[in-house]
Design a protein that fits this description.
The complex is a heterodimer of chains A (341) and B (521). By secondary structure, chain A is α+β, with helices and mostly antiparallel strands. Chain A is 32% helix and 28% strand. Classes of the chains: A alpha+beta (341), B alpha+beta (521).
Chain lengths: 341, 521
């Protein structure tokens, strides 16, 4: 699920205003407003070499992490524009631009370019979409004009922040106007939101709170193991989600249905019932029938990393439903994989 | 600042009608009156730890003087702005202050249950005093009140010309103060202070944490007007009205923002004309939370800051401590953005831990390796949901209601506060109708002291300070102001949810909300 982190409009004299709650208004340099009669309101121009709207990182964490990224720019290019026009750049993270009149993007080590030119002198919605795991795509007015497999997620924006209408260092102003820019990222709180939506009792909440306190203590005492553990988890998740995004559309829809069913049962507190068993079986079957990476494959390595964890001081007895769920997951996976676990 | 006479004229012309719910127990009162009946406490980090609350209070209850002067401090009172004293009064706003190593708060009625002395090793101090009955005696002698602040166009230009005013680079000077379409606008702010804000998670009334989830003492609200620059004051017309309501976003991204503001066209308000050419908007005030609305009903409350609706509300607030642990900064070497918040990593590793526990010999169920595998499956499934499968916040969240709402009065009302003698249909559907009697008060001779209701930041140090003016620039001055809380700190409050509120800079809040409003079709 994506989170809107910037939605700039320029409807009062070209002054940038961010409508998102992150307040990424930014500061314009040599970027005046102009009335666009066909739109009926003001837009912003970038006429000079140093013209841009600069957005600092700010204190609310909008630009880290990104992972997925969607940038929508509604722009009109001058017919006489130069050949390199920057739309939006995030320091060290992404560049969305027009190259030799063709829409293009560069993210980390990935580059892609459209096969047809951006029309001049016409308002066009230009879109860069990186799902965070598998595919990068470019759209013009809703039409897919370029697609490429991604080598990884979008890195966080670095210290110089974000520029709209030019490169951060200047020199490639968007000769033309922008009406609106909207930027989304992968919602970093989705997993937290979903985990906490289960109907906890005071006792089960305290149970998990104690577990997380112990986890923090273990991380502080074993930073190298913690780092390895998180990297393994991240790798497992990345491979799994990348595999999901590369499935045919119908299979993706099926996987989403099953994942949403799991989430709904979790949030309804229906953790140990028959429906949860069915949902787990569906999800496990999905993974195996499509040849997706086995998430449990790294269990032995993880167990080894956690050998320093003194479990005698911890308990999950305070959350019997979670124990039952874990048992059910294990039984489901074992059955699906013919006892491989 | 704009002339006090003009402020009074405009305040009178557009004085709002406040319509309260039948069950409402608290009404706006005079902040000066309130301040002088409070104790001032000082704390050190961690601020929610009551052992850090210095005892006795730095100014004892009932001995604060809000204003300076020999007559004000007579009888052993202490002016809160006394130079050289550490009372939380200074020139820098919170955003310009270094990370605080101390904090001040006001205490009016105390904590629940009310005790004497109020803070000991055995007192609870987890909530501000909650029972309206506990406020009856302390509130005796108070009357419904507001303070009005007026910035004429020159003030607005000077205020918004200072780039330190607005975070994020928002150019309020061009957007509002010098916007030709707004005709040299002026701003009028009605400040309201309520003794208690009561905020329950809907559907969780029977669960203690849910019932008291966002309840705190000392709540500020505001009604803000942007008025055109007609040269003749009597011809001036409001263009926009800004109304405050509670903020429901997750405090882990932007803590300590208890309210936000939404701006509406003035013409959207249902206003009642008076015989003198004034016109008065009907403002429906929500029960307990004191959100302000142009229409009666059950308006949905929306987050004003990032993070979406606060997940700590789940399970009737019983997961607040757990969420606090998940959302704390974490340092994992070699991972990006560390140290920093990485709730996904924390949750995923917690599931691995859980798997191990379920599978360990101590759990005795499935074996440690099997448990780790199950935990890993669980963590990746949830990660896949967040990264790939989520089609929206799960719709099955039952408690509390997924989309919180406020509740105004109507068609029947409790108390209505109105401009003197103004008649309108709702006045006949109310339990009581009181005229505002907000006015400059002059004490009988020989005392002769005058008390105004017009904000004068140079003399009234209880307002929060504004950004420092730039040297040599015509920025608005920033006289000393009080940065503390208007209600007590409480224990077990990691998200500053139940601590008293700091008085925001409502001028900035209004201008930022107006900037967004001006972008709408």
């Amino acid at each position: 699920m994506l989170e809107l982190i910037c939605q700039q409009r320029y409807r009062v004299g070209g002054v940038p205003v961010d409508l998102s709650p992150y307040r990424n208004h930014g500061s314009p340099t040599d970027a005046p407003g102009q009335f666009a009669s066909e739109l009926g309101h003001d837009v912003i121009r970038f006429p000079d070499t140093d013209s841009l709207v600069w957005i600092p990182l700010g204190g609310l964490g909008a630009w880290a992490p990104l992972v997925a990224l969607r940038v929508e720019v509604t722009a009109r290019l001058d017919p006489q524009a130069s050949l390199e026009l920057a739309l939006v750049e995030g320091d060290g993270a992404f560049l969305f631009y027009v190259n030799q009149r063709f829409l293009a993007a560069s993210l980390g080590g990935d580059y892609l370019r459209a096969a047809e030119p951006v029309p001049a002198n016409r308002w066009t919605k230009l879109v860069l979409d990186h799902d965070g795991f598998a595919k990068i795509r470019l759209f013009m007015d809703g039409k897919l004009v370029a697609e490429k497999l991604a080598s990884g997620g979008v890195p966080s924006v670095q210290g110089s922040g974000v520029a709209i209408g030019n490169r951060l260092s200047g020199g490639q102003p968007l000769k033309g106007e922008i009406d609106e820019v909207a930027i989304w990222r992968l919602d970093p709180n989705e997993m937290r939101r979903e985990f906490l939506c289960r109907p906890f009792t005071a006792a089960t909440a305290r149970c998990w709170e104690n577990l997380i306190v112990a986890l923090r203590e273990w991380i502080a005492a074993h930073p190298a193991q913690a780092s390895s553990l998180v990297q393994i988890l991240q790798k497992q998740l990345n491979e799994l989600v990348r595999g999901l995004y590369l499935l045919p559309a119908a299979d993706q829809a099926s996987a989403r249905t099953h994942l949403n069913e799991l989430a709904k049962l979790w949030c309804a507190g229906n953790i140990t019932g028959h429906r949860m068993s069915e949902a787990l079986q569906h999800w496990s079957k999905d993974i195996r029938q499509w040849g997706l990476p086995d998430p449990g494959g790294a269990a032995a390595e993880i167990q080894s990393l956690l050998s320093s964890l003194d479990v005698s001081k911890l308990t999950l007895e305070c959350d019997p439903a979670a124990i039952a769920l874990l048992q059910r997951i294990y039984a489901t996976v074992t059955a699906a994989s013919g006892g491989a676990h | 600042m704009g002339s006090p006479a003009d402020a009074a004229t405009l305040a009178n012309s557009f004085e709002p009608i406040l319509l309260f719910h039948q069950d409402e127990a608290f009404f706006p009162l005079d902040p000066k009156w309130y301040l002088e009946r409070c104790a001032l406490w000082k704390t050190a980090p961690p601020f929610a730890d009551k052992t850090k609350w210095a005892q006795p209070p730095v100014i004892a209850k009932g001995t604060i003087a809000a204003n300076n002067g020999a007559a004000e401090v007579a009888g052993g009172k202490t002016w809160i702005g006394t130079p050289g004293q550490d009372f939380g009064v200074g020139p820098l706003p919170v955003g310009q202050q270094p990370p605080p190593d101390e904090e001040h708060f006001l205490e009016f009625v105390g904590w629940e249950p009310v005790a004497v002395p109020p803070v000991t090793a055995t007192t609870d101090n987890r909530h501000a005093a909650l029972d309206p009955a506990e406020y009856l005696v302390p509130l005796q002698g108070s009357q419904a009140w507001y303070y009005v602040e007026y910035l004429d166009n020159n003030d607005l230009l000077d205020y918004t010309g200072n780039p330190n005013v607005s975070a994020g680079g928002l150019n309020l000077y061009s957007l509002v103060a010098s916007n030709p379409k707004l005709n040299a606008p002026r701003m009028l702010l009605y400040h309201f202070l309520y003794p208690l804000h009561q905020e329950t998670l809907e559907g969780c009334e029977d669960v203690l944490q849910g019932r008291l989830f966002g309840t705190y003492a000392g709540e500020w609200t505001c009604i803000a007007l942007l008025i055109d620059g007609s040269p003749i004051l009597a011809d001036a017309k409001p263009l926009f009205v800004g109304l405050t309501s509670r903020n429901t976003s997750s405090p882990i991204v932007a803590p300590d923002h208890k309210i936000g503001m939404t701006v509406f066209n003035w013409t959207d308000a249902d206003s009642v004309p008076d015989a003198s050419g004034g016109t008065h908007p009907k403002i429906y005030v929500s029960l307990d939370t004191h959100g302000e609305y142009l229409h009666p009903g059950t308006p949905t409350v929306t987050p004003f800051w990032p993070g979406g609706v606060d997940p700590a509300r789940s399970s009737c607030g019983q997961v607040e401590g757990l969420d606090g642990e998940i959302a704390q900064d974490i340092t994992i070497p070699g991972t990006p953005d560390t140290p920093g918040r990485d709730p996904n990593a924390v949750i995923a590793v917690a599931k691995i831990f859980a798997g191990l526990l379920a599978g360990s010999p101590f759990g005795g169920y499935i074996g440690a390796a099997a448990g780790a595998a199950a935990g890993l499956e669980w963590a990746t499934a949830e990660g896949a949901f967040g990264s790939f499968g989520a089609t929206g916040t799960p719709a099955t969240l039952v408690l509390p209601k997924a989309n919180p709402t406020d509740q105004t009065g109507g068609p029947n009302f409790g108390r209505i506060l109105r401009p003197k003698g103004l008649d309108f249909p709702e006045a006949h559907q109310a339990l009581s109708v009181d005229d505002w009697n907000v006015r400059t008060y002059t004490a009988p001779a020989p005392d002769g002291r005058a008390y105004t209701y017009i904000v004068n930041r140079a003399n009234q140090v209880w307002w929060a300070p504004r950004p420092t003016p730039r040297p040599g620039k015509p920025d608005l001055p920033n006289p000393d102001g009080f940065s503390g809380r208007w209600g007590p700190r409480v224990t077990n409050d990691p998200n500053i949810r139940r601590a008293g509120m700091k008085c925001p800079d409502f001028a900035l809040m209004f201008l930022e909300a107006l900037a967004v409003k001006l972008q709408m079709p």
